[in-house]
Every structure is written in C-alpha cells, then in structure tokens.
Amino acid sequence: MTTWLPHSWQKLPIRQQPCYSDATALDVALTKIKSYPPLVFAGEVEKLKRRLSAAAQGEAFVLQAGDCAERFDQCTPDIIRKKIGLLMQMSLELGMSAQKPIVSIGRIAGQYAKPRSHDVEERGDLSLPIYRGDMINDMAPTLAARQPDPERLVEAYHKSSMTLNFIRALFDGEFPSLEQSKAWGLDKKSFSPQSWDRWEQTLAEMNKSWDMVKRQTNSRAFQVVWDGEFYVSHESLLLSYESAMTRFSEDYKAYYNTGAHFLWLGNRTRTIGEAHVEYLRGLQNPIGIKIDERAEPAVIVDLLKLLNPSNAWGKIMLIPRYGLKSVGQFLPAMIATIEKHKQRVLWSVDPMHGNVFLTSSGRKTRDFNVIVDELGETLRIHSRMGTYLGAIHLEMTGEDVTECIGGRSDLKDMDLEKRYETYCDPRLNAAQGLEISQILSDMLSGREVFAPNVIPMKPSFPATLL
Ligand code: PEP
Ligand code: CO
C-alpha cells in the first residue's frame, strides 16, 4: 500500500465533487482554512473512540441525529438550542430506560455538503448545476446561484465554528443541569400531550433519585445530567475541505480530521480504490460507513480491514440504511459475514434513508411508523443473531416542521405543505424525535424481548455519564 498523506486521495478517481471554475479562488479559500484553528481536538476524538468502543461492546448506546443538510441561514441560537435541547431530552429518555450511558453525536457543525443522484436539475428550459449543500452552492434556481463558490468553504468553516462554540458554551453553562431543563428551548406545545407527560415523568423520576443522592451525600450542587460531552459529525464528502481540516497531532503522532469528531463515509462514495476511502484510511477519527442492499458483505469486510487494520473496538460504526422492505433480506447476511470474519464494529441503524417516498404532490417524505418498524425489525434481527445494536442514526430538527408523516399527531400527506423546510431529506420534527426516543426506550428496556443474548445491563445513575 502506498504512503498516506492528507492529499494522497487526489491521485484517485473521485465522485460527488463540485466543479470549481476558478482554481485560484479555490486555492486561496483552502489556504485560509488550513491556517485556521482546529474545531475539535485529537484528545476529544480519542475519548469518543473509547465511548464508541463501550457502545460496540454493549455498555453504552449512541444517539446520532441532526439535519440531513444544515443550512447557513439556520445557524441561529434558537434553532441550535432547540436541536441540542431535543437531543438531550431524547438521550435522557433513552438513558433512563436502557440504564446505560448515552453517547450523543450531532449531525451538526459541518453537515453542509450532500451527495446527489444527478449532476444537473432541469427547470423549464434551464439546466442548472444541482444544489450540493450550502458549503458548495446556493439553492436558488438560477445559474449564478448554483455556481460552486469557494468562498462558501470559508463560510462553512465559520458557521461550523460558531455552531460548535455555541454548543460548547451551552454545555459550559447551566444547560446541563436538570434544574435548567426549562432553558433547553423545548416548547410543550410542540409535543403530543402523551409524550410530554411521559417526559415529565422521566424528569420527576430523575429528580427523585437526585433528591435521594442529595440527602445521602448532603450535596448542594446542581444535578448535572450531562458532563458536557457532546460530539459533532458530518459526512466526509468534500475532500478538499476535509483535507484542509486535517492536521498532524504532535501528542498522538498521527493525523486527525479536526473539523469533526466523527466522519461518515456515504453509501455512494465507499468504493475501495477511490478517493473517499483513501482519505479516511489515514485518519485516527472514528468512521461511520453507510450501507444499503448494494453492499456486498465480502467487500465490506475488505473495507473494514482497510479502514481499521488493527481491528480496534470503537473505530468503525456500521450504519445500515436498508429500509423496512429490505432489512430482513440483507441485514442478517451482512451481520453473519462480519461476525465470521471477526471484524469489530459498532452496529448502528439509520431507519430513515431507506424509507423515503414521494407523495402524490411530489413531496419527499418518510412515514414515522415505517421508521419505527425498521427499528424494531433491526433489533429483532440482532437479537436473533446474538449481536448488539448500539446506535441509532436519525435525521431530525428541534423545529415543528412537517416533513415526515405519521407519529402521534398523525401528520398526513396534506399536512406536509404547512411547514416543509428541508432542502434535502425530510426530518423528524421535535414531537416525532421525542416519540421515537420513547418508543426506542421501550424496545431497549424490554430488551429480553429483542435481545436475549446480549451483554447483561449494568444499571448506573446518572445513566448519561460514562
Ligand atoms: C445522509 O446521511 O444524508 C445520506 C445521504 O446518506 P446515504 O449516504 O446513506 O445516502
Ligand atoms: Co439524508
């Protein structure tokens, strides 16, 4: 194998990249980004790998969620606070039931580039370059707006940095304490009465346990339900940007992507011998791999050996996104092959991407009930096979959007027009996010139903802390 460098991918075939017309402007932008401070540190990345290692071995659970595509104009305190508040709420629901630490990873602070099925979009007589995400071009349907603009790379760095700075500040303040749960930006009106009641019960139970701890230990401290650990992730797609954010750590004597703690390899760019795999091969960051029914189990084993040559726990998260229709057919063979080759992976499930369909009015949507069914089916398969489902990957926002149908509020096709805001895939709204965490909590706490063979649970409190 040839020597790896942050730019060694440049010699290989590559997919899903924009075509910049001004090479000098691209160079100027990338040089700026290379000179900027890292957004995350190698030590944080290593800590996340330890968390993922625990999750892979049945001792923690990972909640990874956020927008399909973040947008520059949504980098506002209110939107970020609500998204993080919802993630905390969901993590606490999961942690209480699963009695395991929950590791939270946002699809946030850098999820600005999207793989697309077509390079162009036909609009009447116009043939426009496709929208590839805010770090590349603008969504507006004009030729000028759709030109890839290198300055957007610099803006993506700044928006990621503002978002992450705000998240870090939230966790440094009183945000993580239970007493401050009102500050999480959650609005009771956004949720169904049933899930909100249940959430209040969860809070009450946590407060009761906390009162007990306080009485026994005479502590006057806030109950910190979160120790400030929050990780950020995005798809490793736009390799010029990713390599500009790749830095050598003198402490660890290795290369890290310092633009996110966790990166994933998309379903459309995971070909061995091509640029995306080559780029990720040299990093210390943990890596997610999206797989659908086109993924040959034997090829995935080769990919695992390439990306995780020491077969370390916590390095790779496999993220199947088969869809309800195909999960029963393809997941068992994939698990069996990975197990046979003794490859160490953290099994996740993305019950979103295989379940997209178009409504009669042409809106892209997903059905909440189908998402839940794929989740249940995935748990049953792992249970049968004696493996551990240690993570879930969702597309979600804290806003009251109407993009996915179903859920307790029973959103219908015709409701989608009310607040359909995504530029890319449809997201769960706040109510649907909380509901899915409660449903998954029930599935996890009744784990004997789903997974008789997995590692026994170790109750611990507070369950969110590792
Ligand atoms: C995504 O996560 O938004 C995405 C495009 O996933 P996939 O690679 O599975 O299509
Ligand atoms: Co998506």
What distinguishing features does this structure have?
about 475 residues; single chain; alpha/beta; binds cobalt (II) ion; disordered C terminus; 13 helices; two-stranded antiparallel ribbon; binds phosphoenolpyruvate
Account of the protein in words:
The protein has 466 residues and is α/β, with parallel strands linked by helices. The chain has helices spanning 23-35, 42-56, 77-98, 143-146, 151-172, 193-217, 239-244, 275-281, 297-307, 324-340, 368-385, 430-445, 447-450; strands at 61-66, 102-107, 120-123, 126-129, 231-235, 246-249, 254-257, 262-265, 287-291, 316-320, 346-347, 356-358, 364-366, 391-395. The strands form four sheets. It has an eight-stranded parallel sheet, with helices on both faces. Strands 3-4 form a two-stranded antiparallel sheet. Strand 8 (262-265), helix 8 and strand 9 (287-291) form a beta-alpha-beta unit. It binds phosphoenolpyruvate and cobalt (II) ion. Residues 68, 353, 395, 424-425 line the site of cobalt (II) ion (CO). The site of cobalt (II) ion (CO) has 5 residues, from loops.
